[in-house]
Amino acid sequence: MLKQIDHIGIAVKNLEETIKLYKNIMGLELIEQEEVESQKVKVAKFDINGVHIEFLEPTAPDSPIAKFIEKKGEGLHHIAYMTDNINKELENLKSKGIKLINEESFDGASGVKVAFVHPKSSIVLTELVGKGE
Ligand code: ZN
């Protein structure tokens, strides 16, 4: 079962400018900045009442985020939903014919499991987040 929105991922070209806009002008709380080398992105996370907005800037031309921006421009990249059991949810979606990018969940940030649903099946790239059992 999907329980709530965990975070929203937004692809941007310039993270510093984005931080200025969302922190200084919009007044959101910047809670974390990190570089995720495996995904070739820099991330700035904001919190709004428990939902995180994650801005993603590519650090290399072959980053998945660089390819996304090239094709579609800056903007909404994915929506992540908290599940009560990510493995059961993956099985459930698969049994209903939903195309998955990851049939098995893997370790994401902050000790949770994550997996992606293919945007061909979900319109917007969808990330599932949660515990395995
Ligand atoms: Zn995400």
Q: Which assembly state applies to the chains in this document?
A: single chain
Architecture per CATH nomenclature, i.e. the level-2 architecture: Roll
- Strand fraction: 35-45%
CATH topology: 2,3-Dihydroxybiphenyl 1,2-Dioxygenase, domain 1
The H-level CATH homologous superfamily, spelled out, is 2,3-Dihydroxybiphenyl 1,2-Dioxygenase, domain 1
Global shape: globular
CA(first)-CA(last) distance: 13 Å
**Helix proportion range:** 25-40%
How many beta-strand elements? 8
Q: Identify the strand order in the major beta sheet.
A: 2-3-4-1-5-8-7-6
Task: Calculate Rg over CA atoms.
Answer: 15 Å
Number of helices: 4
Question: What would your notes on this structure say?
Answer:
- The protein has 133 residues and is an alpha+beta fold.
- The protein has a single domain (2-130), classed as 2,3-Dihydroxybiphenyl 1,2-Dioxygenase, domain 1, CATH 3.10.180.
- Helix content is 26%, strand content 41%.
- It binds zinc ion.
- The site of zinc ion has 6 residues, from strand 1 and strand 5.
Summarize the structure.
The chain is α+β, with helices and mostly antiparallel strands. It is built from four helices and eight strands, in the order E-H-E-E-E-H-E-H-E-E-H-E. A hairpin with a 2-residue loop joins strand 3 and strand 4.
Itemize the secondary structure elements and their pairings.
Elements: E1 2-11, H1 15-25, E2 29-36, E3 41-48, E4 51-58, H2 64-72, E5 75-83, H3 86-95, E6 106-107, E7 113-117, H4 119-122, E8 126-130
Parallel strand pairs: 1-4, 5-8
Antiparallel strand pairs: 1-5, 2-3, 3-4, 6-7, 7-8
Bound molecules: zinc ion.
